[in-house]
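Example record

One chain of 283 residues, shown exactly as stored in the release files.
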Amino acid sequence: MSYRARHAIPDLGVGVGFRVPHHGRVLDERPPMGWFEVISENFMVAGGRPLDNLARLKDSYPVVPHGVSLAIGSVEPLDTDHLTRLRALVDRLDPPWVSDHLCWGRAPGLHLHDLLPLPYTREAVDLVVERVKRVQGTLERPFALENVSSYMTYRASSMSEWEFVTEVVERADCGLLLDCNNVYVSARNHGFDPDRYIDAIPADRVVQMHLAGHTDKGTYVLDTHAEPVCDEVWALYRRAVARCGAVATLVEWDDEIPAWEVLAGEADRARIMRADVLARSVA
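Predicted structure tokens for this chain:
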């Protein structure tokens, strides 16, 4: 039985991130949208307006928390205070799953607040698997890891990124948040075939997908979430939907955030494309 089936992971359709420029529009007008993703750390607080806004959002839409600071691949001990506050947020939302990034970002006495790639080694797999099991035990909810974009590689790596991701999620028995834009960015930066990546990941463990824009710097691609989704990423998304089926999709736009209508238009495009691929798969 697939991971999604075992945990009754729902298909929430297509959603967008809940970002400050759109708070008033979303909370006051409740425009059509399948669901919203929130950055966990923005709501891991004791009270105040953030939690009031979150409660209003939850009254009208499904809401899923997505973390950026867990640093699951760091060798430093897991931050127990962070996990305690995350568990409180999860209890407040009762989401169908919780996610964070497959990366590291902490060192002795230092939190870099960045999503740094891991070396693709057996030792790194062992480390992440043990930590994911602890996180899942604390949260008592399905937990998914997102593949990150990267700008460097390690000489120590002994497998491809998709082999590493697959081994981590299979051995940790967790979900995968497949970010199609991050696959494209890393493929451009490191010269691998993004289609091969999409074809290799364990489709039954994908609980969510991300779409986003990036900035092409010529010699490299930077994951900025500041532009519309490009044609190449849309093509990867079509391929991923054909493999994974009806999986919740989230359009990210976190910098130079446009008017609500522009963001909603990107979500509409994803919704139409997803429906077309799913219809073809059953025809």
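Notes: The first helix runs from residue 3 to 6.
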